[in-house]
Amino acid sequence: MINENPPPTVYALSRRNALLLLLASLGFTVGxxxxxxxxxxxxxxxxxxxxxxxxxxCSFALARRLVRNRPELVLDADGLxxxxxxxxxxSEIAAVGIxxxxxxxxxxxxxxVVLHDPAAYLARAPRLVRASAGLNRSLGxxxxxxxxxxxxxxxxxxxxxxxxxxxRLGADAx
Length: 174
Known about the structure:
Blueprint: E1 9-12, H1 15-37, H2 42-68, E2 71-75, E3 79-82, E4 86-89, E5 93-103, E6 106-115, H3 118-124, H4 127-138, E7 145-147, H5 155-165, E8 170-171
Parallel strand pairs: 5-8
Antiparallel strand pairs: 1-2, 2-3, 3-4, 5-6, 6-7
Helix pairs in contact: 1-2
């Protein structure tokens, strides 16, 4: 008997990258607190008031991910499970591809997971995904994207593994 389904492909959290992101978030949280404490201008007060809760939340979320030590991404015969996106079946996915977003000279690569029915996914998606869906849409992206900064291997390797698990998966030209 031939096993047609490859064993699950498991990608651990890139602890190094997550730790660097945590340190940066903590730095911005402290910087925001200093702006609040020594606010000489309205801009400083507003910047601090925005930075502390946002980067504080990011710090908390990253620290939690480091402590929990769950896999970042698991691919199997039925679909994918991402630590932030939750479970998505291959039958829900129209295509996958690598996309880049450039903001102020910094480029962030990601795997765009193009869904047949984004609304159906969002109805059951984790709260953070639902909250960021509008912003993603305004930037021209769907609700399901896998950032490169917490995956320990090149995104091309992840795409190849996705196609091994589901050969009929389409390719998103971006």
